[in-house]
Hints:
The chain has 2 domains: 16-267 and 392-427, 3-Layer(aba) Sandwich (Alkaline Phosphatase, subunit A); 271-381. It is 34% helix and 18% strand. The protein has helices at residues 2-14, 47-55, 70-79, 83-86, 116-122, 155-163, 168-176, 188-205, 216-224, 229-252, 276-281, 317-332, 344-349, 419-427, and strands spanning 23-28, 57-58, 61-63, 127-130, 143-145, 209-214, 257-261, 267-268, 271-273, 285-287, 293-296, 298-303, 306-311, 338-343, 358-362, 366-368, 377-379, 384-385, 399-402, 409-410, 413-415. The strands form 6 sheets. The chain has an 8-stranded mixed beta sheet, sandwiched between helices. Mean pLDDT is 95; it is low at 1-19.
Amino acid sequence: xxxxxxxxxxxxxxxxxxxxxxxxxxxxxxxxxxxxxxxxxxxxxxxxxxxxxxxxxxxxxxxxxxxxxxxxxxxxxxxxxxxxxxxxxxxxxxxxxxxxxxxxxxxxxxxxxxxxxxxxxxxxxxxxxxxxxxxxxxxxxxxxxxxxxxxxxxxxxxxxxxxxxxxxxxxxxxxxxxxxxxxxxxxxxxxxxxxxxxxxxxxxxxxxxxxxxxxxxxxxxxxxxxxxxxxxxxxxxxxxxxxxxxxxxxxxxxxxxxxxxxxxxxxxxxxxxxxxxxxxxxxxxxxxxxxxxxxxxxxxxxxxxxxxxxxxxxxxxxxxxxxxxxxxxxxxxxxxxxxxxxxxxxxxxxxxxxxxxxxxxxxxxxxxxxxxxxxxxxxxxxxxxxxxxxxxxxxxxxxxxxxxxxxxxxxxxxxxxxxxxxxxxxxxxxxxxxxxxxxx
Length: 440
């Protein structure tokens, strides 16, 4: 019996059954790589973020995934793999018949590989989530307030209550003393509400691994442009929210490691480009009187500064050749401001959507327009955009880490895929599908 007990104890020690530290993973959507390091030069006061950076380690920048959009990036941040492998290749699902009512990749069933939540849960660690993308029905999250919305009406809170961990939302609303913010609310004020709920959740459950997503910076950078007074004010307001989250986590779990990330950078923009037009002109898309497609052979899948091109018959060599010709002609027309066209092999090498036969990358200052009936060029509704190729330095995102055992200093330029396995190492768990090695 004694021999058996010693064997079990040794096994627990060698398999990392007990984690060295709990982890709070905070994402600030759209926080550019230099916003914290150059805060003073950019006219911002960010005491919480600069304190974290001074206390721990930070990256010079994080190179993201193709495309540099919120949902593909956030799925990489919790899996350690590229969109080609994890399966979340855009924010919006591919909807060539325009039937899905602008549906996003809300559902975790679309993720093809294990996540940090599942890995932690499998080791007996408690997990929690507030508003992280692609978490509806996510396995391994013990206390889950997933991100989802539909109409922004009174039915949306009912939907969230039905999809959240049973009983969690009313429990937290009672503790916080207010209703939970609508999923469609991407303002800093909506973030402030979610931070109150996250703090209450952390205090009550003391999870070993918690994820919290805040959208207000991205929302303002789209609306007002990166570096604008309004966007900088949103960053300063969000800094206060980070301070509240960090204080709540450290009070509940003194050994907590704080991992602060963002998903992408930002480009200022002024112009929409209608990438549907060449496909319409070539007869690859047919529109009905209502402006919706009635037939299609090839379709752009818009992603801000890029667009994947999907084919109805991707193995049809004649169709592939026809689309390649259309794209070559379009890229040669300076009116379209195309920086590059990637074929299937180049997309695969970059880890982009496995469903894409081509990828079109626009020049800085231009985004993919959403109206197939628009002219080639027209003024953009937004003033800031992302989704460009990850090699664009303006798309680099943020990584700051502080906690027990985290060595102070710079991490250099980090591959986004390295963040999840690094968190796994802190938690004492593994992500066997991770594509690169940990960096902290």
